[in-house]
Design a protein that fits this description.
Blueprint lengths: L21 H26 L5 H16 L7 H18 L5 H4 L1 H13 L2 H11 L3 H77 L4 H27 L23 H9 L4 E7 L7 H21 L5 E9 L2 E8 L17 H11 L3 E6 L5 E8 H4 L1
Parallel strand pairs: 1-2
Antiparallel strand pairs: 2-3, 3-5, 4-5
Helix pairs in contact: 1-2, 2-3, 3-5, 5-6, 5-7, 6-7, 7-8, 7-10, 10-11
């Protein structure tokens, strides 16, 4: 799916060999040809009144220019040359038509060439268009020269502005794509890392009690199955985000609910199945948060619980608190485990869990701090602004 926001048939100016699509080229032709016929055609009729044959030839050349502009999207350099020559002939036939007006079609072609071709080509075309400047000075004096050069330079500059605008659009599109890839990577990491950590602990617990307490082993295996199904559902949801259909999948199944603080109890249950006691406390209307804040808060809790399972040696209890205070959501996860000596803070290893949590909080304009508590245990505390993210 193209997420750049541009239409499928809209080209980027300056792309190699870039040609405007037929629809855009036709619209450009109609607009520019209409302008030439209206402005230059009127000037020729007024200036050629009583000129007889000269008026007929000049009008024919104006029509030729308007027709030639239909090819400016594909061959701007050739159209520029043709309209410049015919414009000069019109000016020679009817000197009352200003040189600037006679070369109106050439200026339009110069603008298109400047926007769609490399700068070295457009600079050469600009220099060529400046060659008739002495003639403008001879006929119109300094004022005529200034007007002619100003219109030519403005035509070239307008094309360059359009080219620069499209370059910025391409850069923003690339950045948006990279950010989206990073976001998807974080989502996949959160889903897979948390679920696998829970499944590993549950599998080890089932193996320990498989013979002596088979019912407890079965409970752990059922928890593994539930965690795996939940992870698969979330992964399908992430992959489905790249598809245009928004309702049901191929089998007609409704999408699973997205990760949210409303599913915090489900998350806590998967961790409780490992034997860890989890306390969940909510304060305020946390079920009405903007989607980005809601998802970020859920993922921070999920990653903090995962880090507790992985790194908090001897942890038996963890408290999760989510409160809405003013225009901020405060998320706090505290466990009673201890950090193994020499291992650093939880999440500081290859998985970089804390880095990911801080980045998530930063993306919605919030902040996160994490570290061991003086009396033992580890705390993760995030503050996420609601107003800013919404």
């Amino acid at each position: 799916m193209d997420r750049s926001g541009r239409q499928p048939d809209e080209p980027f100016a300056g792309e190699a060999g870039g040609e405007l699509p037929p629809r855009v080229a036709r619209a450009l032709w109609r607009g520019s040809a209409g302008l030439v016929l209206a402005v230059l055609g009127t000037s020729v009729v007024v200036a050629g009144a009583g000129q007889g044959g000269r008026l007929s030839v000049a009008m024919a050349l104006v029509v030729v220019q308007a027709y030639a502009l239909g090819w400016q999207a594909r061959f701007p350099a050739a159209v520029l040359a043709a309209t410049a020559v015919t414009g000069l002939v019109v000016w020679v036939l009817l000197p009352a038509v200003t040189l600037t007006g006679a070369l109106l079609a050439a200026q339009i072609a110069l603008c298109v060439l400047s926007a769609t071709r490399p700068r070295r080509v457009s600079v050469g075309a600009l220099a060529a268009m400046c060659l008739p400047a002495p003639a403008a000075f001879l006929v119109g004096g300094p004022a005529g020269l200034a007007v002619y050069l100003l219109t030519v330079v403005l035509a070239w500059t307008a094309g360059q502005w359009r080219r620069a605008h499209q370059a910025r659009t391409r850069a923003e599109t690339r950045r948006a794509v990279l950010e989206e890839r990073a976001r998807i990577a974080r989502e996949v990491h959160d889903v897979v890392a948390h679920t696998l950590s829970v499944m590993t602990v549950q599998a080890a617990a089932a193996d320990d009690v498989f013979t002596q307490r088979p019912e407890q082993a079965r409970q752990a295996l059922r928890a593994i199955e539930t965690s795996a199904r939940s992870a698969l559902g979330e992964l399908r949801l992430l992959l489905r985000a790249f598809r245009p259909d928004a309702g049901e999948d191929e089998a007609g199944e409704q999408r699973e609910p997205r990760p949210s603080l409303a599913r915090l109890d489900e998350l806590a249950e998967t961790v409780r199945a490992t034997g860890l006691t989890v306390h969940v406390r909510r304060e305020g209307a946390t079920d009405e948060l903007p989607a980005p804040v809601d998802l970020t808060a859920y993922r921070i809790v999920q990653e903090a619980l995962t880090n507790t399972l992985r790194h908090a040696a001897g942890a038996g209890e963890v408290s999760v608190r989510v409160t809405l205070e003013g225009d901020c959501v405060n998320v706090t996860v505290v466990d009673d485990g201890r950090v193994p000596q020499g291992s650093g803070a939880p999440g500081s290893g290859p998985g970089r869990g804390l880095v990911g949590m801080r980045e998530r909080a930063r993306l919605v304009g919030g902040s996160l701090r994490a570290g061991p508590l003086p009396g033992g245990g580890f705390e993760v505390a995030a503050q996420l602004p609601v107003e800013r993210a919404s």
